[in-house]
Specification:
The complex is a heterodimer of chains A (283) and B (205). Helix content of chain A is 33%, strand content 29%. Chain A has 10 helices and 13 strands. In chain A, the strands form 3 sheets. Chain A has a 6-stranded mixed sheet, with helices on both faces. Chain A has a 4-stranded antiparallel sheet with strand order 2-1-4-5, with helices on one face. In chain A, strands 11-13-12 form a 3-stranded antiparallel sheet. Chain B is built from 8 helices and no strands. The longest helix of chain B has 52 residues. The chains are: A alpha/beta (283), B mainly alpha (205).
Chain lengths: 283, 205
């Protein structure tokens, strides 16, 4: 079963549109939703949680159509972290816990208290006095304290320092050690996603450019550093993006379409995305 | 709904201590007008709670949590009702107790305070659907217009119906006693489903 299935979803806002989105998150896996600011990542998450109605298409979460009345029950199984914590600013962590205890049927106060201690979150300090890192940790503590089967994280690591980010990514890895658990995480920090994810989905201008296994993605492409003369020898259909310099060029190519005579480096995910976006702008 | 109500109470107690104290003081001050003020102020508490929700973007997070639109809407009505009933009870108790000690200004009975309570309910029933549809910023404009309309209407009505002795005729008084609670009940019954529709319209706009 897939944790999330999106079929032919479109949503228009006039000047921006999500166009014919198709995407699956297999159960037990972590998928990173990548894209620049305004690419449609947060809109996709709002569509998944039915906080927005699509113009067309279908979305199911944990096997349930998100338009059906049963989806209300599925929300119990979804831990959600948005780009900010969005709790009322005068509440403290203890009060947030008390509110959530009446929100989620499987709320576990002991687990929540454990996270507060683990993250060094003062239980009586009001939320507005928390640092950015502390607010995100509190949101993550809430998301993990009601036995979710799916975590949906929208820019949950942005604006955090590398140490906190690493700590949080480790926590997400722990979560998916259970084969029933899945994560959809959106971010524009590609290195975080590369570290964490099994799948990478790349959204650009409201369109899904690819959704692939991370390793398959890196195997599909190669980077060639070459002279301008060598660049001319490359078949057009193999070239996905070019970065020219006075000394030559770096080229993202489709590995299978290029002769073995060229020496190719394995790209990281950030390379692939940057080349694809630049390639589109140059076209 | 209990969670949402709890959240609003935590927020209001923390943010509105002075305002809540003022309501309590108005409720126990002598004179019928003071009780009406207290009750009307209590009717405004749901808007204040909604304003704090909007400011913290809680509404966005709540739409992804296991709250139904009914939970979200009804929690605001319940908050208003509880506050109005509390102010009414406080006012009635103050008049009952202090009326024995200093009779001047403290003669209201519970049955005389109840119409004010119903007016509070009517205010909530009329304005909350607009708040859910247009948000608190624009919704407050409708609230102000309603207060002006009620004040002008009340003054005109008083001029028209008061007898030469300054008293409301007994028959009309009885009609008010029955009519205002009935109007409050009918408007509330219409208002709640309307607010749910308005909430969904704003959410999916």
């Amino acid at each position: 079963m897939n944790a999330i299935e999106i079929k032919n979803v479109s949503k228009s806002f006039g000047d921006f549109a999500i166009q014919n989105l198709n995407f699956e998150l297999p159960k037990g896996s972590i998928c990173g939703l990548v894209g620049e600011n305004g690419a449609g990542k947060s809109t996709t998450i709002r569509l998944i949680m039915h906080a927005l109605r699509p113009d067309s298409g279908e979305i199911s979460v944990l096997g349930v159509d998100n338009r059906s009345p049963e989806f209300q029950q599925v929300k119990e199984d979804v831990g959600i972290v948005l780009d900010e914590a969005y709790f009322p600013e005068t509440l403290n962590a203890n009060q947030v816990g008390l509110v959530m205890a009446d929100t989620y049927a499987r709320w576990d106060a002991a687990v929540y208290d454990g996270f507060l201690k683990r993250f060094d979150l003062p239980p009586k300090k009001v939320f507005k006095d928390y640092s950015r890192g502390m607010t995100m940790k509190l949101a993550i503590a809430v998301a993990l304290s009601h036995s979710p089967r799916l975590l949906i994280l929208d820019e949950a690591t942005s604006g955090l320092d590398p140490i906190v980010r690493d700590e949080i990514l480790e926590l997400f890895s722990e979560f998916t050690r259970d084969a029933e658990h899945s994560i959809l995480i959106s971010s524009h920090i590609v290195s975080d996603l590369e570290k964490l994810c099994d799948y990478i989905a790349f959204l650009h201008n409201g369109r899904l450019r690819f959704c692939m296994e991370k390793d398959a993605l890196r195997d599909e492409y190669g980077i060639i550093s070459c002279t301008k003369a060598q660049l001319a020898e490359l078949p057009d259909e193999a070239v996905c993006g070019v970065e020219k310099s006075p000394y030559g060029a770096r080229v993202l190519v489709k590995r299978k379409l290029v002769s073995a005579a060229f020496q190719m480096d394995r790209p990281n995910i950030e390379d692939v995305i940057l080349f694809l976006v630049k390639g589109e702008k140059q076209a | 709904m209990k969670a949402l109500l709890k959240k609003d109470i935590y927020v209001l107690i923390r943010q509105m201590r002075v305002f809540l104290l003022m309501i309590a003081v108005f409720a126990v001050l002598p004179g019928a007008n003071m009780s009406v003020f207290a009750i009307v102020y209590c009717g405004m508490l749901p808007y204040t709670a909604m304003a704090y929700d909007e400011r913290s973007k809680w509404t966005e997070l709540a739409s992804m949590m296991p709250y139904t639109p009914g939970d979200i809407v009804l929690s605001k009505y319940t908050l208003g009702w509880l506050a109005i009933v509390a102010a009414t009870a406080l006012s009635a108790a103050a008049h009952l107790i202090l009326g024995h000690i200093m009779p001047s200004g403290y003669g209201l009975t519970l049955s005389e305070v109840l119409p004010s309570m119903c007016i509070g309910f009517i205010m909530i029933a009329i304005t909350l659907p607009l708040m859910f549809r247009f948000g608190v910023e624009k919704g407050r404009m409708f609230f102000i217009l309603l207060i002006i309309a009620l004040s002008c209407g009340g003054a005109a009505l008083a001029q028209g119906v008061l007898g030469s002795d300054g008293e409301i005729p007994a028959g009309l008084n009885a009609l008010f006693s029955l009519g205002i609670p009935a109007l409050a009940a009918v408007l509330t019954a219409i208002s709640i489903p309307l607010s749910i529709v308005m909430y969904n319209r704003r959410k999916y706009a």
